[in-house]
Write a structure and sequence with these properties.
- With about 400 residues, the protein is α+β, with helices and mostly antiparallel strands.
- It has a domain of about 180 residues: ATPase, nucleotide binding domain (Nucleotidyltransferase, domain 5, 2-Layer Sandwich).
- About 35% of the residues lie in helices and about 25% in strands.
- It has twelve helices and 18 strands.
- The strands form three sheets. Strands 1, 2, 3, 4, 5, 6, 7, 8, 9 and 10 form a ten-stranded mixed sheet that branches. Strands 11, 12, 13, 14, 17 and 18 form a six-stranded mixed sheet that branches. Strands 15-16 form a two-stranded antiparallel ribbon.
- Helix 5 crosses helix 12, helix 7 runs antiparallel to helix 9 and helix 9 packs across helix 10.
């Protein structure tokens, strides 16, 4: 019987953030897939094995949870080189998309095949049996609609197989993934847990614990606004909206292509141009450094106004709110625009995380805290129930 390993996975619309085991391994890979119809040609096996597996994720996925079973995919960086690469579309539900599951299974398989886990999971020839206790999440809107129940049931009780095809170091390996337990948390609640508690769920932010706060989590496809009072998320007041940054990033990418003839591989490239420290809002056009400020400012300011309107509407209905925290990758993209709007308009007490990593990893960190706490409590309960052996 294989041991069960803890996995906390945030399947973000921009990228997947995952934390494994006892915080000893992290993965962050772009959420891009491309369907493949046939095996891609192998460039000399020696050359293949000298490359980073994350740059060449090429897999076949077998799972009863998928609408399209036994399909072959290029994932992440490799997918950006395909002309049929897909990122999640606005309006889609994370819990109902094959892409969410394919990325989740691929991420777990990439952890399971690591040499460091040879003692954790049984291996027979080229097959690895991996057992995980998973903490993950869905947008508030989907949880309120009860979609977390269906999502969880797709995962538990089945075996999901990832077969590595032409992937550096892992070619020919198969990973059978089983879930010992799956916990699906609402994203807004997870952000609150991360704000006030450490990895042992000890309160680290006493100032916040009894405050009335909002948490506006801006993702790729959706925005969640969690309303916290009396140390709980108010499910009735909390709201989820079909408004994220993906559509605007796509518009920036398209306009850069039309105006400058520069093809960016993915939305992630657009995020990098907007948020990097040096040469922000600049691209190279035929070897010359060129500003795209006019494009990014116009499109992103429009989105920031819509996000600000959401904040205003929710704050009006919760007038005793003391502070709103903006979290998530989308907040990072819109930070300067929302701050400028707030300064010139209502002047709400709002806060952003200056540490970009903290904001982007917030959900994965929260799921890790929640799932390790669940495991701890379960083990404690078992110890109490089991009779002491003489």
């Amino acid at each position: 019987m294989s041991k069960t390993r803890i996995a906390a996975v945030d399947v973000g619309n921009d990228s997947i953030k995952a934390i494994f085991g006892e915080l000893e391994y992290e993965l962050n890979i772009p959420n891009i897939v491309a369907r493949d119809t046939e095996d891609r040609p192998v460039i000399g096996i020696e050359e293949l094995n000298n490359k980073n597996p994350l740059d060449g994720i090429h897999i076949k996925v077998h799972s009863p949870a998928l609408k399209e079973n036994n399909a072959i995919y290029r994932i992440s960086h490799l997918a950006t080189k395909s002309n049929n690469a897909t990122e999640l579309d606005p309006g889609s539900s994370k819990s109902e998309e094959d892409q969410t599951l394919v990325m989740l299974f691929a991420t777990l398989a990439l952890d399971a095949v690591r040499a460091e886990n040879a003692n954790v999971f049984p291996r027979s020839k080229n097959v690895i049996d991996a057992n995980y206790t998973l903490g993950t999440g869905l947008p508030l809107r989907e949880v309120k609609e009860g979609k977390d129940v269906g999502y969880r049931s797709k995962l538990v009780g089945s075996v999901h197989q990832v077969e590595f095809l032409v992937t550096p170091k892992y070619q020919g390996l198969k990973v059978n993934i089983k879930f010992n337990e799956v916990k699906v948390y609402p994203e807004g609640f997870a952000a609150y847990i991360n704000l006030v508690m450490d990895n042992n769920l000890k309160i680290i932010n006493k100032d916040l614990i009894d405050k009335r706060i909002l948490i506006q989590d801006i993702g790729g496809l959706s925005t969640d606004i969690a309303v916290i009072k009396n140390r709980n998320v108010d499910d009735d007041k909390a709201q989820g909206f079909n408004l994220g940054v993906s559509e605007s990033l796509e518009a920036v990418r398209e306009e850069i292509r039309t105006k400058h003839g520069v093809e960016l591989d993915s939305r992630r490239d657009v995020v990098e141009i907007i948020t990097r420290k040096n040469d922000r809002n600049h691209i190279m056009v035929k070897g010359s450094r060129t500003s795209v400020h006019d494009i990014t400012d116009r499109i992103l300011l429009e989105l920031a106004k819509k996000q600000y309107r959401l904040l205003r509407n929710v704050w009006q209905k919760n007038s005793q709110t003391e502070i709103c925290y903006f979290v998530g990758g989308g907040s990072n993209v819109l930070k300067e625009y929302i701050k400028a709007l707030n300064n010139s308009l209502d002047g709400y007490n709002i806060e952003f995380f200056e540490d970009e990593k903290e904001s982007i990893w917030m959900m994965a960190n929260a799921y890790y805290k929640l799932i390790t706490d669940f495991v701890r409590k379960t083990e404690k309960q078992k110890a109490v129930q089991e009779p002491v052996k003489n």
